[in-house]
Amino acid sequence: MTALFRPDPDGTSSRGSRMYGYALLPAVLLFLAVALFISPPDSGPDASENSMGELVRIMYVHVPVAVACYTAFFVTAAASVLYLVRKTEGWDTLAAASAEVGVVFTVLTLATGSIWGHIAWGTWWEWDPRLTSTLLMLVVYVGYLALRRAVIDPVVRAKRAAVVGLVAFANVPIVHYSVDWWRGIHQPATISRLDPTIDGMKLFALMFGMIVALAVYGWLMIHRFRLQFAENQLEAKGLDLALTERRAEASAGSLAAPKGAS
Predict the structure, then answer these.
(1) Domain extent at residue 129
(2) How does DSSP assign the chain, residue by residue?
(3) What per-residue confidence (pLDDT) applies to 194?
(4) Could you give the CA distance from residue 261 to residue 258 in angstroms, rounded to a whole number?
(5) Nearest of 150, 141, 129 to residue 104 by alpha carbon
(6) How many domains does the chain have?
(7) 31: confidence class by pLDDT, cuts 50, 70, 90
(8) Which of 149, 170, 173, 172 is nearest to 161 (CA)?
(9) pLDDT band for position 15 (50/70/90)?
(10) Domain-located, residue 74
């Protein structure tokens, strides 16, 4: 069982992750077929001008990738807390990997939202509360990743990044509830508790998309975590080698000093 998930020596994949990927690919293709072709266009509750028509198909991608980015940043925050409590390198590695994957999903969220907005509103961008807070969330987590590159000492870096990763998550619920707290042009939540505004095949497409997006997040996390762990190991070896060379130079200098004095 352990060998199934042990990474290959020359990459980040394993037999288990490859099986995961092979199962995920047809699920993604099936989702795209359902979202883009099989599901019907939106006709609205009363077939009025308020219906989204074919535009609803973008929602099947836009909402799932947004859910995936929320999940990624939640994992970063949880792993940051666990690092501060346990001081274990694995939690820091998990936080960093999840933040990077989360940034990718946030970019996809903004990109699909802009396409949606261009069709629905006639503009690629509006300083709407939801859009503005999402852009701020992207900037904050890009800054988190930049901080990880700026600090050399791995222990100091992990502590500072854990604090930032925890504080940065405060913006996630602001993004989620911004459409309820402030007036804007972004439509409210499509699914609210037990009273969804869509049903049937449209609801299935949206829920299926969320499952697929989270599965893609999991697959990306497997590889990014393993790559981050390998980078940490390489960095540790490089620091050890640099310290060994520095000690050797200092030792050689101290031995040469008496000869120079005579």
Answers:
(1) 21-41+55-188+200-243
(2) -HHHHPPPTTSS--HHHHHHHHHHHHHHHHHHHIIIIISPPB--TTSSTT--BTTHHHHHHHHHHHHHHHHHHHHHHHHHHHHHHH--HHHHHHHHHHHHHHHHHHHHHHHHHHHHHHHHTSSS----HHHHHHHHHHHHHHHHHHHHHH--SHHHHHHHHHHHHHHHTTHHHHHHHHHHHS--SS---S--TT--S--HHHHHHHHHHHHHHHHHHHHHHHHHHHHHHHHHHHHHHHHHHHHHHHHHHHHHHHHHHHHHH-
(3) 46
(4) 5
(5) 141
(6) 1
(7) very high
(8) 149
(9) confident
(10) yes
Give me the mean pLDDT over the 118-138 stretch. 90
Does residue 149 lie within any of the structural domains?
A: yes
For residue 172, being part of any structural domain is answered with: yes
Identify whether 253 is part of a domain. Answer: no
Query: Whole-model pTM?
Result: 0.84
More confident of the two residues 55 and 161? 161
